[in-house]
Amino acid sequence: MLRSAFEFDSSLERLIRFLAKDGRTYYGDAILSPGVTDIAKATQARVIKGDILGKHDVTNQIADVRLLLAPFAREHVKTVRCLGLNYEQHAKESKMPLPEYPILFYKPVTALTGPFDNIPVAAPAQEVEGLDYECELVAIIGKEARDVPEPKALDYVLGYAVGNDVSHREWQLKRGGGQWALGKGFDGWAPFGPGIVSSRLIKDPQSLKISTKLNGKTVQDSSTKDMIFNVAETISFLSQGTTLLPGDIIFTGTPEGVGSGRSPPLWLKDGDVVEVNLEGIGSCTNKIEYTKRKPKL
To answer: For the residues of 19-50, what is the DSSP string, one character each?
Structure first.
């Protein structure tokens, strides 16, 4: 049955975008074995036909998954909004006061990348230490939202993913002129996925375990219940006088345990492997890759 962005397909549970073994790229509904919730383990999916944010149909065509891609193609993402200092313990480790209002910043859509892609570190970000990890719950807007009351806010969520708000503290806090975007907006610095789990399956986004592993060692281990502004509060606040569009992505902040909050700091290095995980959704596993400097002409 064809659905629109204002009428979610009741059969769609775990949205993925993937390169299939036939060489084509599809949107699909991931097929998981009983008891498995990590979308990263999907090997097959039911192919979706049509406009993923408009009229579409979850078909009975089964395709084999070769590689999971970012859950949305770049052309389907409208805006990438992010919250800073949105976990109480993270604010404390950062020695910052709890914010009175959500702290909003933006990432460019070029920062988005897939759940298994390498994270490229360009030459300017190699000049000084400060590269950091941040596991985050990511909420995806499914229908147009403006002036939404908090009790209705989750009705506008298509689903949830996990993401890594990769950050360079030197560029974020010192070289950014007071704005965070430069230190968080490099190409490929927002891996997310491994798919988008329907808000029908995750009815309470504030009760999920969230964690990060660095080279196999756990460095963040928390729960989304530690958020200062929960997902409903965030969507309601961001929609006041501002229209949220289908395809808008919201990174909702990171818990304690970031590298900058440690003594001594724990900075990411070339070749490090970062795995961010969210309960009921799965993991993104990405390798840090320093890009080579281009020779001067």
So the answer is: EETTS-EEEEEEE--TT---GGG--EEEEEEE
